[in-house]
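Quarterly update from the structural biology core.
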Amino acid sequence: MKCKYLVLIAGVLVLLMTACKGKNEAPKQGFGLEPQMTVSVFDTTTVQQYTKEFLDLVMHEQIDDAISRLYELDGDQVKPLPDEQKAACRFWLNTYNIYGYRITDFTFYKETDSEVKAELFIEDPATKEDPARISLTFRPVRHNGAWFLRLANSGTQEKSELHN
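Predicted structure, tokenized:
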């Protein structure tokens, strides 16, 4: 009888050992999400400051000053917005009265693929419990150690694995 139990226990142990074989291997590269970039407090505060400055200027109807703080990424060069994009931004930003804003999210994926989301209140929060708002997404880029603010549009949507 003892022999039957020993054989049964040995069989169970063999099954357990073979079932767990290879489970401690490191995950294969290329699957899942890429690691996010390393950022410092300086990076976060700089991007936050640039975003707040832009939104404050818009809120105080200093649209041209706000637009002058926006850039585009052209290959590996960061350039001021071309006149056509400035005109489109000016039209869009002058369409609404902005009563306030809230920065809702910061995500740093990589130097050319980061995201800041904000809500702009287009109704006065002092007079409405749930004021109407619009979303605005920035795509900041770090180039040669300096941060530049970009507005999200079809030309700034990177194709990182985090966005698929």
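The first strand starts at residue 71 and ends at 74.
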